[in-house]
Amino acid sequence: MIENYIKAHRTAEHEYHKAVASGEYPYLPALDDFLETRKQQNQISIGVTEIPLSMIAGTKTAGRQNSFSRGFMPLLSEKTEFAMKWSHLYDAQVSVGIRDPILVYEYMNRFYVQEGNKRVSVSKAVGAYSISADVIRILPERNGQQEVDIYFEFIEFYQSARINEILFSSKGRYAELARIMGQTLGTPWPDEVKEALRSAYLCFAEIFASKHGDRLGITGGDAFLLYLRIFSFDSLLSESRERISKRLDKIWTEFLTQNNKNSIELWEVPDEADTESPAASVKKVFPMVPAYSEKKPLKAAFLYEKDPQSSRWVYGHELGRTEVEERFEGIVRTCKYENIMTESDVEKAIEDAEEKGCELIFTTSAAMMPQALRIAIEKPNLKILNCSINLSHNKVRTYYS
C-alpha cells in the first residue's frame, strides 16, 4: 500500500534534513566512491548467508545512492514508478517475505549493496533484523594498521564461527573468545557451539543496546567479552533477561573504564613518607568508617599463588605484609593464604577471609584478577586489590611493587 511508502518517505526526509543540518552526506555512501578499483581486485566469495541489516552501510555503486537516505529510507516522491515498485515489494514482504537473496560486497565489516537496494529498504521499514545475501568479500591490503589487523583476525573467527555481528576494537580478542568457548580459530566449530554463541551474543547485545551502550565508545563485542571475563558463558543461556540486565548495571563502570584506558596513569614514584600517626594513615584509606584501633583493627588478607620458601615474588609480598603489621602497631592485622592456584582457591580464600572480618584483600598475582573482579562486583563492601599492570578495572584497583 502506498501509505506505507509515504510513511517511509517521511522518515527519509527527516534523516536527510538531519544529516544536512549536521554537515553529513545525506545519501547512501557508495563503496566505489572511496575504495580504489585496484584495491577491489582481491575478492573472495562467501556465498549466501544471513547478514544483519544494521551492518549494511550503503551501495556498491553510485547508481541508486541518491534514491535513499542514509538509513535506506526512500527519498523519491510517492508519485514515481519507484514508489509503486517499493509499495508492491512491501506488500510481498508482509505477506510471504522476501526470498531472493540480495547481492552485496563486504569491506571491513560493512556491507554495500550491488543488487537489492529496495529489498533492503523494505526490510528496514518493516523492522526486520537480517536479510539473505550473496556476499563477496573485498580484502584490504595488510598495511600494519590496527584496524586492518583486527579485521584479519575477524576473518579467521568468521571461518570458524560464521558470525558477522561480534566485532572487537583491539587485537587478540577473537582468540580470547575462542578460548572461552573451548575452541580454536581457523577450524570450523561445531554447529551447537556456533548456535549457542550467536544466541547468547544477540541476547546480550539487545540488552546492552537498550541501556544505550552504543554511547560508551566500545563495541558490543568488547562489552560481551568483558561480561564473559566476569560471568560464565552458560549464565547467558540459562538466566533471565532481568538477571542479565541487573548484572550489566553492576559492571557498567567496568565498561567506562575499558573505554578510558588511555587516561590511566602509572605512578612510579611513591609519595613522601608522612609523619602522621598510624591511625590517621589508615583513616586516609578508609575515610567513611569509624576510626580503627587496637581493639577494632583493620583486617587485611594476602593471597599468594605459592609460598615464601619457593617463590621470591611471594617472599617480597610477605616482607611487605609483616612490615604493615609492624608499621601500624596493631591497628592493622593481616592473614595470609598460600598456594592459591585456581579460581576455586581464590573464592574459598576470600570467603574465609571475609568470615574472619577482613575488609581489604590483596590478590598478589595477575592470574587472580578474573575471580577477584567477579567477587568485587558481587561483594561491593570488600576492597580488593590486584598486583598487576595493564589490567584496568573500576571495581578492583591495581598496584605494583
Question: How does this model look, in words?
Answer:
This protein is of the alpha/beta class. It contains 15 helices and ten strands. The strands form two sheets. It has a five-stranded mixed beta sheet. It has a five-stranded parallel beta sheet with strand order 7-6-8-9-10, with helices on both faces. Helix 7 (191-210) packs across helix 8. It is elongated.
The proportion of strand residues reads 5-15%
Strand order in the sheet with the most strands? 1-5-3-4-2
Q: Shape from CA axes?
A: elongated
Query: Based on DSSP secondary structure assignment, what is the total number of beta strands?
Result: 10
Rg, alpha carbons = 28 Å
In short:
Helix content is 43%, strand content 15%. The chain is an alpha/beta fold. A five-stranded mixed sheet has the order 1-5-3-4-2.
Structural descriptors:
single chain; 401 residues; alpha/beta; five-stranded mixed beta sheet; 10 strands; 43% helix; elongated
